[in-house]
Here is the input.
Amino acid sequence: MKNDDSPCLLLARDGIFPVTRDIDGNPLPSPPASGFPFPGTIQGEGKLNGIPSLFVRLAGCNLRCAWEGSACDTPHAAAGATGTRSLPAREVAGIVARNRDNIRHVVITGGEPLLQPDGVEALCHALRRHFPFHVTVESNATRYEERVAGVADLMSLSPKLSSSAPASAAGHHAARLRPDVIQRYISHARERGKDFQLKFVYATGSDVHEIHELLASLRDWTNEDILLMPLGNTPALSRQNAILAAGHAIRNGWRYCDRLHVSLFGDREGV
Ligand code: SF4
Here is the structure.
């Protein structure tokens, strides 16, 4: 699309997925990574687990997560990502809309989408000019962007616990957890009748203690908003942590959250 004055988004290399058509509706040369001959996948994590969805993955992140035995699960979208491309938000929305079929949920993820607040806000507006999509914005919750909170239906917040910190990255440790930012998203959602979720990766027993400490500093959440997800970007690692994560979720009254897309499709980009 030429002369598009809508803000540009820096997309990861699997930036709009899974899709089978370009913006004009022409078939793409290769099938999507899902293996299906049609667009869409399922949301594999969180309150909307299992819902048919299309994803927009943005590139770049301000954190450097590296758990023991598992690095960032989206290295192709994290800091220093290669194969990125820049596209106007309006064009991204046009491609999503061309691949909508019966799908009404769009997930904007990363990387860290809130590094590109202008583009995310513009994308939400552009999407809804095509169709009244439900939009989830996934974030590590280290930056408050009111305009994004205002246009998202669900803010999916994934605060990072100390088990996410590589020994070599002091900057990560200092930046990873912002209770003040998390509280602003919660308060915004409560005041506007919107939804949010706090999704934690379970890697070790000390994570549970840290979650309790964080929750004690926050207000206006319920147990249904708290999700515990096993560490694991492969089916084998996810299974290894799953039963422990489920046990802690049950004992604390939180939700257990699987990684359904990993179970279904394995450790693949673009699903
Ligand atoms: S916040 Fe997410 S994208 Fe960024 S490094 Fe951590 S796991 Fe990766």
